[in-house]
Design a protein that fits this description.
Number of domains: 1
Mean pLDDT: 90
Radius of gyration: 14 Å
Shape: elongated
Helix content: over 70%
Number of strands: 0
Order of helices and strands: HH
Structural class: mainly alpha
Low-confidence stretches: none
Number of helices: 2
Amino acid sequence: MNDTGSIVLFTILAFSLAVILIMTKDTIQPQMRRMLALVTIVLVGCSFFMIVFSFLRAGS
């Protein structure tokens, strides 16, 4: 997991999806909104994990 560009790109895309989902929450159907929210939470959580992991690897 040494490719920093991929981590940065994944983080930007995950947070962009979260922002788009928040901005358009009134126009999305409730079933689809719940599924997209769960997927977005997982993606944002993974991006946080990758950021913290890359900081820990850089320090050692």
